[in-house]
Amino acid sequence: MFQAAERLRDVKVSASAAMTDRARELRAAGVKVISLSSGEPDFPTPPHAVEAAHAAALAGDTKYPNQSGTPALKKAVQRKFKRENNLDYALDEILVANGGKQIVFNAIFASCNPGDEVIIPSPGWITYADIVKLAEATPVPVACPENNRFKLRAEDLDAAITPATKWLFLNFPNNPTGAACSREEMRALADVLLRHPHVWVLTDDIYEHLIYDGVEFCTIAEVEPRLKERTLTMNGASKAYAMTGWRVGYAGGPKPLIDAMNNVHGQATGGITTVSQAAAVAALEGSQELLRERAAEYAKRRDAVVSWLREAPGVTCHKPEGAFYVFPNIAGCIGKTSRAGRKIADDTAFVSALLEEQHVATVQGAAYGMSPYFRISYATDMDTLAEGCRRIQEFCSGLR
């Protein structure tokens, strides 16, 4: 009889992936499901990126790639970091991998030992803690409550750091809350880190271009250049360019770290698909106007979704500054019973009942480390969002 490795004991299947799979099952059975669970843009990949991939394939660029990334893509990433983040990375300080997730995996497996601690602002992306657990290190969640707009306070970071702290993860704009840090707030975090020179920083900037209301994006190595030598700056093509399926993530960091990550990378997968890298070059080097256009559309969706959710009984909804998620508070729904007789004991019960009774797929806040909340992705068209929110209103109205 098969027995899974002990390291998988506390690692669960992603709640967002599980909810998306359940929604697909219901659709296959003929149910009209509204899926608001997946963080996947509904926009198409930029045509010039598709054309570049096609041209690369026709030109025979289909062999094993450079393990750390093609020269063309690494140069494009180098220019991107300089152009948009005022960060200078040499080509041997850049690594390309199979999405941002593999960048995180490579970094933690290249650097962590049992007993090391990794500070993760909570709520945070599900995968962070699970990768840390797989590497036999210890995730240390630090609460970022709604009354602080879901942001990490400098004093809370300082209190969480111990001699065993190896990494701090930063993800602003944030998944699942959409919170974005101002330059002043990032400066305060940087000041704490300067007092703790043994702590490294992994900054996940994947939602960099999804910011609203005049908020200025900033990344910590830009805000405090003295931290650059212990910062891994990660980004990718998935969210900004609607290239989730192309699987292109990249990072800049100190050469010894990048070399160690590339070693892990080579054992796990090797270099990523050549045609995806050609597409990513075109995306990074082509016109960036579509980023502004899409951010403007996301802002309209955010405003509408927040307004609709605030009309649902028992729900309050903070208006986020970035990403394409809202993270509504459902404290007013807990303890009630749905029309079909389901007891809403917590946010997991809420999203389960919502899916089964109103056929709307969302993700429970507990999966991201904070209850009683649930996550909605507004990376879909306005008609779908309107219908999904109407069903949520109806579900909440029926709670007794």
Characterize the structure shown:
The chain has helices at residues 15-28, 47-58, 71-85, 99-111, 126-134, 154-160, 183-194, 220-223, 255-268, 274-285, 289-309, 347-358, 382-397; strands at residues 34-35, 94-97, 117-122, 138-143, 165-170, 200-204, 231-236, 249-252, 325-326, 360-361, 363-364, 374-377. The mean pLDDT is 96. It is α/β, with parallel strands linked by helices and 400 residues long. It has two domains: 6-44 and 290-397, Alpha-Beta Complex (Aspartate Aminotransferase, domain 1), CATH 3.90.1150; 61-285, Aspartate Aminotransferase, domain 2. The strands form three sheets. A seven-stranded mixed β-sheet has the order 2-8-7-6-5-3-4, with helices on both faces.
Tell me the count of domains: 2
Query: CATH top level of the largest domain?
Result: Alpha Beta
Helix content: 40-55%
Give the quaternary arrangement of the chains.
single chain
State the CATH topology of the largest domain. Answer: Aspartate Aminotransferase, domain 2
* Tally of individual helices: 13
The rough form would be described as: globular
CATH superfamily of the largest domain: Type I PLP-dependent aspartate aminotransferase-like (Major domain)
Beta-strand portion reads 5-15%
Secondary-structure element order, N to C: HEHHEHEHEHEHEHEEHHHEHEEEH
| Strand-pairing-aware structural class | alpha/beta
Radius of gyration, taken over Cα atoms and rounded to an integer in Å: 21 Å
What CATH architecture of the largest domain would you give?
A: 3-Layer(aba) Sandwich
Number of DSSP-assigned strands: 12
Average pLDDT level: 96
Main β-sheet description: 7 strands, mixed
Poorly predicted parts: none
Strand order of the largest sheet: 2-8-7-6-5-3-4
End-to-end gap:
46 Å
